[in-house]
């Protein structure tokens, strides 16, 4: 077992109540492992306390990245959420704690 931060980095964006997390392999040789282990179902389970709808994964194999779009994940969005992290920027750090 290892943590994702050992082989990848991440970025996060938001649009309304949707959080977008990109997971990018440091080394292309690790992309297949990340693709195999980090499924939409596992991401939804990992974020089960905040994601209230579906998680969709998009693959970008040419750059060794996965993009996860998490619907209904930001407590209503920036203008409605009472969260300290209304944009969900800390989610990129949190996903890197996932064990694979």
What's the SSE blueprint?
Elements: E1 8-15, E2 18-25, H1 31-37, H2 40-46, E3 55-60, E4 65-70, H3 91-95
Antiparallel strand pairs: 1-2, 2-4, 3-4
Task: Describe this entry's structure for a reader.
The protein is of the alpha+beta class. The protein contains 3 helices and 4 strands. The chain has helices at 31-37, 40-46, 91-95, and strands at residues 8-15, 18-25, 55-60, 65-70. A 4-stranded antiparallel beta sheet has the order 1-2-4-3. Strand 3 and strand 4 (65-70) form a beta hairpin. The longest helix is centred in the middle third of the chain and has 7 residues, at 31-37. The radius of gyration is 13 Å and the shape is globular. The N and C termini lie close together (6 Å). Mean pLDDT is 86; it is low at 79-88.
In short:
With 100 residues, the chain is of the alpha+beta class. The chain has three helices and four strands.
Could you give the distance between the termini? 6 Å
* Portion in helices: 10-25%
The string of secondary-structure elements, in order, is: EEHHEEH
On the 0-100 scale, what is the average pLDDT?
86
| Unreliable stretches covering 5 or more consecutive residues | 79-88
Number of helices: 3
**Cα Rg:** 13 Å
The main pleated sheet reads as:
4 strands, antiparallel
Strand order of the largest sheet: 1-2-4-3
Broad shape: globular
Q: What class do helices, strands and sheet pairing give?
A: alpha+beta
Strand content: 25-35%
How many β-strand runs?
A: 4
């Amino acid at each position: 077992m290892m943590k994702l931060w050992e082989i990848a980095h991440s970025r996060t964006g938001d649009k309304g109540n949707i959080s977008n997390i990109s997971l990018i392999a440091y080394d292309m040789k690790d992309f297949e492992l990340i693709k195999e282990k980090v499924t939409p179902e596992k991401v939804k389970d990992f974020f089960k306390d905040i994601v209230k709808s579906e998680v969709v994964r998009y693959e970008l194999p040419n750059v060794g990245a996965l993009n996860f779009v998490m619907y209904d994940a930001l407590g209503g969005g920036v203008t409605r959420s009472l969260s300290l992290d209304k944009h969900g920027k800390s989610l990129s750090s949190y996903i890197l704690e996932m064990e694979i």
